[in-house]
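Hello again,

I reread your note about wanting to compare the complex against the isolated chains. To keep things tidy I'm splitting this into two emails, and this first one only covers the full assembly. Below are the input lines as submitted, including protein chains and any nucleic acid or small-molecule components. They are followed by the predicted structure of everything together. The single-chain runs will come separately.
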Amino acid sequence: MTFSGPERAPVFKARNLVKTYTWGEVTVHALRGVDLDLYEHEMVVLLGPSGSGKTTLLNILGGLDSASSGEVFYRDHNLVNSDEETLTRFRREHVGFVFQFYNLIASLTAVENIRLVTEITSSPMKPEDALDLVGIKALADRFPSQLSGGEQQRVSIARAIAKRPDILLCDEPTGALDYETGRKVLEAIQKIHSELGTLVVIITHNAAIAGIADRVIRIENGKIAEVRIQPDRLALDQIRW
Amino acid sequence: MVKQALNTKILRSLVRLRFQTVSIAVLVACGSGLLIAAWSSYDALQRAKQHTYDNLHFGDIFAEVKEAPLSLESRIRAIPGVREVDLRLVESALIRLPGAPSARFISLPEAGSPGLDRVHLKSGTLPASTQIPEILVSEGFALARTLRPGDTLGGIVGGRQWMFRISGLGLSPDSVYLIGPGSPLPDNTRYGLVWMNRKDLERISRKGRTFQRLSLKVSPGISTTGVIEDLDRILKPYGSSGSFLRKDQLSNRLVENEITEQKTLAVLFPGIFLGIATFLIHNTLARLVQMERVQIATLRALGYRSLEIMVHYLKLALSMIAIGAVAGIALGTGIGSLMSRSYQAFFRFPEIVFRPGFDAILLGLLASVTAGVLGAVSALRSIRALTPAEALRPPAPQRFRTGILDRSFIGPRIPVRIRMILRNSLAHPIRLAWNILGMACAWILLIMSLSWNDILENLIDERFLRQSRETLSMSLRTPVKDASADSWGQIPGVLEHETYRILPVRMRFEQHLKTLALTGAPLLPRLELPAVEGLALSRYFQKVWGLNVGDRVAFESLEDGKKHFSIPVSHFIQDAIGVSARVPKTWLHSLLDEEPSFNRILLRVNPSSVPDVLERLEASPLGKSIVTKRDILVSFARTLGTLIRVSSLVLVVFAIVMAVALLLNSIRISFAERQKEIASLRVLGLPFSTAFDLLLSETAIQWILAAPVGCVAGNLLTRAALKAMHAEEYDFTVVISPRTYALSFIILGACFLAGSHWMRTICRTTPLPDAIKTEE
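Full-complex prediction:
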């Protein structure tokens, strides 16, 4: 079954995506045949319980992991058959990642963490501008250990968007944050989505957050269980969790 | 593209990982420092030798004759290929100084002939012809006897007493490493060279216009074999003991031997040290990569290529190494200069100029970088193998299986905590082996360096105390009848005496040729072991000449008469210093067709009577040289002993520093892997000390298991090192005393306790929530 979205060319097209891996001594069937299209300028939320396969799907879309079988196209490029060099170039040029636990380099300041990205991409924004966009320009010279969780996550978002990516993939961006802080982070993501027109995919198991998305895709047990299109998505101040 | 942010990360990582940085830097500094020190010292010796030989015109071919007229010079010059000829008058003498040292008087070239084997004037002036004959004294002897220019010196030359005035101190290229007759080692207090004007020496020796020593310089590209044959033909009627090449000249041979030894040392020990540094670099980097797997995965997610990340970590490793290499240059220069100074007591070169050569520094840097890169290789490969998605997942629990122990009868009876330790240790045999090997390296370092002292002590004990029990030995100018030996035995204070017949020979087997002394020894010697029943040769000939028991060796007597004979080898003996050939004395008499006689006598003397006995012997006109055991031991301690002690001290200091760095690092890695578990146990309610001791016991098991591995490996490597160093002049027995093992145990035990205490402090002061989350 293919869930169709708006009448636009898909950025990602996934067909019969399967992923199994071993974790310790257990074989995990993370994805069991996923078909999915994602479009430009969309904000998509992937919902689902822990272990449902959301992160695995996001990792495959972002070129961090490869599928065991099936196809994933980023525009015309099949990511499944791509070599490591192609995937690295794909990540470098097109994808921004935001992780649940920020994954900032502890020994680099906020601005230096962003420079990690701006130094290897062709037309990045200024690191300071990226920080400004997420509202923490004043914290540029602080080390991660001197920042709160929300501030760290916003640095992580700034680092992800500084390259002006086509796709922003966020894995539980508010998972480690309280409501107020989480809201600020989502604000930053929304701002980037509206100002830069980036395709944003957010993984969450927080159903309330789904309200801000154009489409909500629910994943259960490695399969897409439901796709909900939301023509009237909610504003941030309309949701609470 | 300059990745400034990543470079900033390197600097911060160096500070954050300061312990690892320091331990790698220390190991590299020690390894490269030792390499630079040893290589520069070797280079200094090599340069000093070359400089001395070139500047003082060291000959190519040498010969000694009993006495030949100077008029032979024109015939010798006429030999095709001969470029320069130098003929010297030589006379042996006893010097009127305590202990009756012997000296070799050598004529200086006559005016107008610069000559070969020239004397380098260290101080004072050349001898002038004055009423009291002036002499130049070899520097080593003068320093050992505190003689200065202007001093007067008495001596017995040509059977008469003479007084001399010292005009200066000198050195010559043929006496850089000077060994007196009958002595196995250089002894500057017992033997020296004296140079004087030919006219004066002719007069006091009453030898007239003759020469006893000859050296030649040949034109480049000339076959020396032909020259030697022609020369031997000319000198044969004059009691020549046969001419020989520079490579067989005693001083040069010993110098070359020592230089080769230094070269082996310069490669061997730094090689081992750098090998161990490589191991530590590998361990540290592997640990670092494991620790930073999430950061590495993040960098990959951000779009960095594996290669870029590998280069980043390689830069980090090389930065740690660079710190060590720079410290190594400074350390190597200091130690090298100290080592070169210790050679001065051994080699009498006009000067040994130590300078850390560009090549030595380059070699040190190259070796350090190679060690770093080799150490980093597998850790860096693991970066390539690391898949970002996997690294971003929480690490999977380590694999464990129920083992034989669990299924056995005692399995269920083992307390859970002990089971935890056993499983941790046994479930990962490779990791366990790696940790044990890391700690064993510390043992290896200590045993290899500390055992030098044992080897030295064993050498003294074996060679000078157990194998030779005499108080003194006296060499005679010519053989005397055995019957007269009793008169020596009757000197008051002499407890035992034993006579030997020493025959200078040229020994030949297949293409091998060597000039040495064939000793005719009593069948049942009491004073000098071992007893021989046939021809006994040093093991050197077995190893290097490929001789086997039963092979016939040809001898040519170099005494008058030129007897030729051949004897089958009956066994091989170990000579710690030098090489020897021994046969029963009675054999030698029949081979030479002579009556029982001797030219060397060993005496065991009542300690209180030694001065009186010495006085009696010194007065004997038959004496050529007298050597006391005490003098040999003192000389040994002063020369070879000093050299070995300095080298071994340097090794010991380096080894201790490295062993401490290595062990502390191993303990740190071991605990880093367990810190999270300690925290988990504490969360479960175990008191800190119980949780800590539980994990400490795991590291203690590794430390205990490392001991036998390190002892055995240290023992084997010491043997291998000595084998690699084996040269003609030394055949040491590897002895590792219980003291060495005990000392290693104490040093490493203290290190383990200090390391554990340090880890205890770290674990205790780390807040529990942080420890639970910690990756390190």
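For quick reference: The two ends of chain B are 32 Å apart (CA to CA).

B.
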